[in-house]
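Chapter summary example.
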Amino acid sequence: MSGGEISRPAAPAGDPGPDTDTGPAPVRTGPERRSHPLLEFALTTLLVFAVVTIVRWVFDPASPLALANLHLALLVVGALVGVLLFALLRSPWGRRSGAHVNPAVTLALWRLGVFPGRGVAAYVAAQLGGSVAGTVLARLAWGPAVARVGYGAAVAAPSWNGWAVFTAEAGCLVVVTLVIGFFLVHPARARWFPPALAVLVGAIVAGLGPLSGGSANPARQFGPVLLSGSTAGLWIYLAAPALGAVLGAAAHRFIARGAAPPRDPRRGPGAAPPP
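The structure predicted for these 275 residues follows.
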């Protein structure tokens, strides 16, 4: 799973926007923004390629780096994915596009009022396309070893039924969305958002990996499942995070009722988020 950079309301036309070295990237408008779905495609391709690669080396029995203990293996995977997510968030491309790399995060930011609804479809399409591209690249890079680990797809424990997995995956996005919402209403603490999200995603992978699979990201699961051919439960990993994002945004609005709406501090105290 991965998360995304917090997006602030759009800057006025022609305004280059504030320095984002220590905080979230603003949502920009105009010609510059047209390239953002392409950046999301590239970032998601990199994310999924790296995740499949990590799973290939940690779980393939033929790998010299394989770990027999499932919990230890997932702890390592979670830590590496967290570091990778942090790097994507802080990268120049990540600061420009927001580094959502997760359709559910894009949906959450829209429902939180800080990402334009007209951009959701393009971002989601780019992220899902990047998921397929990243999986294909991993297969080309590592050969049959990728197939031996199911193309890196998250797998639920046999003792967990579909509704248990659905609840866990949705719950993850409720928590992720509430964390995003917290930093939106506390912009002075925005510099802590990338490490906080990286730790949270790593904990999801390590803690829920042996149970629900710990995906919490439709893009993380989409490409690997399609290429593996085991698509029976794919709908859960697509729908549950989306529902969790919507519920998390609703919960944030309830908790933050009466608080000032998220805004770009350069625009004055009354600036409202885009619809």
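To summarize the output: Strands lie at 7-8, 25-26.
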